[in-house]
Write a structure and sequence with these properties.
Rossmann fold; alpha/beta; 7-stranded antiparallel β-sheet; 8-stranded mixed β-sheet; Beta-Lactamase
């Protein structure tokens, strides 16, 4: 998705630096920046991380236009909904977020033009990263779990691998609203989400969950990022149908998690047996704390790390 000049600089990075990249940020008139667990670095033309913009790769208008159009497959009209949401999921599950000048239709966002910034979030499939969580929570059977953490704490990566693990023993319906988990292309999952997983790619959560329960008879439903609005009805329907629920949410503590309206309501209804919190930075993807809910609500186990 990068212009030839930017791609050349990124491809010159050393192996370890390349593997460390979690995001690539392009700002019109700015510089090419890589985000890693250790921080943000400018990328130089000869493929090195720099702390200052000296000799860093400059971002020109044509670089922004190239990446934006490549992410939308040169078909802007086919991605009107994604443009309004501010992101599109590219092949491999990589999310391309962008911002610019909003064009409004009354009080509703109609589209975004004059793109000024682009953030490419690099999808990472880490086979085995859910092994510890699986052993601690699912060795004796299924339970419902909410996985929480700050942005870029590894929630999606953990969910993906947990789906792979659970699918070895149970029927799983994966609600992949943004196509980041399975990264399906023409019906084929690019990521390994297990042999017994039915993938609902691009569905709104409400329709996906209701359909999954009715026609796929899953033992467990896995979905990324609990949101708002009419999703609560779908989660309640699944739980009342005897289906276990595994979901993620942006929250760094149990207190913050309970400020999220849907998460708070589901916790109060006893929908989740456990809340798992992930670390950040170099501890992203690793369990920082685990709480049993329900009768043992908020009993904090010792942090693993």
């Amino acid at each position: 998705m990068l212009s030839e000049r930017l791609a050349s600089a990124v491809c010159r990075l050393g192996y370890n630096d390349m593997k460390a990249v979690r995001e690539l940020r392009l700002r019109r008139g700015g510089f090419l920046i890589a985000s890693t667990a250790e921080g943000e670095y400018y990328i130089s033309g000869d493929g090195r991380f720099k702390l200052s913009p000296e000799n860093a790769v400059r971002i020109f208008d044509e670089d922004i236009e190239h990446t934006y159009r490549a992410a939308l497959k040169n078909s802007i009209h086919s991605f009107e909904n994604e443009i309004r949401q501010g992101y599109v999921t590219a092949p491999g599950g990589n999310r391309v977020g962008f911002c610019g000048r909003a064009v409004m239709n009354g009080e509703q966002l109609y589209t975004v033009k004059e793109i000024s910034s682009i953030n490419i979030r690099v999808s990472s499939e880490i086979i085995g990263c859910a092994d510890e969580l699986y052993d601690r929570l699912f060795s004796r059977g299924l339970c419902s779990v909410i996985i929480a953490g700050a942005p870029s704490s590894g929630k999606t990566t953990l969910l993906r691998d947990l789906c792979r693990k659970l699918s070895g023993d149970y029927r799983v319906s994966l609600i992949d609203e943004r196509s980041e988990l399975a990264a399906s292309v023409e019906g084929h999952a690019e990521n390994n989400v297990g042999d017994k997983t039915d993938i609902f790619s691009g569905y709104p959560k409400l329709e996906a969950i209701l359909t999954a329960v009715r026609v796929m008879a899953p033992r467990v439903i896995i979905t990324d990022e609990i949101g708002a609005g009419d999703e609560l009805r779908a989660y309640e329907y699944a739980i009342n149908s005897g289906v276990k629920l595994i979901a993620s949410c942006h929250a760094e503590s149990l207190t913050e998690l309970k400020r999220r309206p849907i998460a708070r309501e589901l916790i109060s209804q006893g929908a989740f047996d456990c809340a798992v919190f992930l670390g950040t930075g170099s501890f992203a993807g690793r369990i920082s704390s685990l709480h049993f809910l329900g009768d043992k609500e908020c009993s904090d186990l010792a942090a693993v790390y």
